[in-house]
Amino acid sequence: MAERPAEPILEVRDLVKHYPLTRGVLFKKRTGAVRAVDGVSFELAAGETLGIVGESGCGKSTVARTLVHLERPTAGRIRYRGEDITRLSGRALKAVRRNIQMVFQDPYTSLNPRMTVGDIVGEPYEIHPEAAPKGDRRRRVRELLEVVGLDPDYAGRYPHQFSGGQRQRIGIARGLALRPEIIVADEPVSALDVSVQAQVVNLMERLQAEFGLAYLFIAHDLSVVRHISDRVAVMYLGRLAETGTDTEIYEHPTHPYTRALLSAVPRPDPAARARRARIPLAGEVPSPAHPPSGCRFRTRCWKARERCAREVPELAVPEAYRASGGPAAHPSACHFAAEPDEPDEPYGTGEAGRGA
Amino acid sequence: MALLEVTGLHVEFRTRDGTVPAVSGVSYRVDAGETLAVLGESGSGKSVTAQAVMGILDSPPGRITAGRVLFRGQDLLTLKEERRRRIRGAEMAMIFQDALSALNPVLTVGAQLGEMFTVHRGMSRKAARAEAVRLMDRVGIPAAKDRAGDYPHQFSGGMRQRIMIAMALALEPALIIADEPTTALDVTVQAQVMDLLAELRRELAMGLVLITHDLGVVADVADRIVVMYAGRIVESAPVRDIYRRPAHPYTEGLLESVPRVDRKGRELYAIKGLPPNPRRIPPGCAFHPRCPRAREVCRTEVPPQFEVAPERTSACFFWRETPGGTGAPDGTEMRGGTEMPGGTETPGGTRAPGGTEEGDG
Fold this sequence. Notes:
Helices cover 28% and strands 21% of the residues of chain A.
């Protein structure tokens, strides 16, 4: 929406997170690694929303967890306001964490059932006492509850007394307590009923405008991501496939995976049924422990050729669009992004992928 | 004759804190070869209805207190359990959301599928095994012959769902009830599974009851839809009509709250409030505390099913004001109707517009 400011508040470069696979009990031998995130770079500007979409196992949640230091990256750099925060620890890490907070997917398991709502929302002040003087905390907690649309008198109640949507509001209030600049939200509305999702999405947008928050909004619901995001990144098997503004991604996708993903989303419009041209994907997502060589999507891609097995495609604006500009000129990690061919078998006839 | 006809079904749960109504007078029908979508949020009673129809309701605490479930003209609720068990699986089958917990973890999938044939069809184990492999192949599991010896946990979510579909289809039932069959799956896998279901349904001319909360999935596959709220059906209609012109404020709100491209940057429409707790369902129309159209009568009287058009009903006193009732979204034709049963004076002074009353109240 807004012009991208020159100075990003968060900068992620070549982020890698591998989980070692080991064998043996006493003498653990490393036998390989699950390459959950394997070289991801992006930036987030103040007040902006970057949506990350992708299917389960693509590494989007791992990216989120490394940003808030719930996981330590294997390699790569995370910069906050120009400062490298990747390897911070102790007091310095704590100071940075105040500014990057997280909202979790499941409002049923991410709130401690034995704490009152007031204690949950006020807990960040226990960890960061400098954020609010002791005498002021009760008032602040009431304020936060009010901001997210809950009755401040509920501060003494327990999480089980609230519905899913209300619990998500509690989680958001907790995320706001320290007045962060960035909120990392991992599937914040996925667990909610349809009629309640819209309420929470509206709340998040209102809070963003009010507090100038930047969101990293991770979700698998493509229509919600489009609604809330300024820019969108599509992830597949640990890497970014394509990034761009919401219009660039949704209206002019150039990566075959993005095209297939978008075509699979059912539209709430029965009249569109006949016009639907779905791009079926052959097979399944390969294991992140043994990703394909070259382009990771090639085993399911109808465009794949010999080069795709050999060369890892860079996430860059396709050569052919660079000069002309326009909405197709956005980064796409496909060797053949500029070739607009469709899969040759129409939808429903079976295998469409011819692996290289 | 309808393949399945549910009439006036009531189900309640007996709990320590009293009796909780889960389903309060649900009626719907499914014909052979037809897909009926049952749309609702958590606690709407959509799954409990299905369990009652299948005869797998946890009882106690669940109890069917009224209604009939006619399957090919025969009331299942009056049958002996032994007879029902033979219908279940052979003539009607169910697909669940979570395949991992619905499949037996300590039996290979080949053995589980084969069991259908040895138990119901009296096949030899060897023949049953061959049938199992043929079925796995049919639902698109690659290298079916090799994989028949694998256990459920060795399959991905999408493949497990296919195995469950294979199990439901094994005896070629006339009716399949699928309870959120793709909710746990990724969107590209969901597309594959829904396509498979649609294809098999066509091929075998089965009736399909699809229980879901996903408006997109319904639009994609259903012929007709019933929308449930707080244990009742609030609207039923052919699928095309309901998306273009919903005739109940709840359906209207649900459709309105779907994010749309042309509304980016604006607030989403949000139905205010929360779905009711089944222990405390509001009196009158259960939707009235959240309804922008609610008036006095809605607080006190349970709306009956009004016939909006042939094959279309709405349980809203003011359905004539909805897009489905007026033919135009701006509601110009309202207030032409006859006086409602017990037509209450509304605060604004207008008479509540009535409609043709139909069905149970």
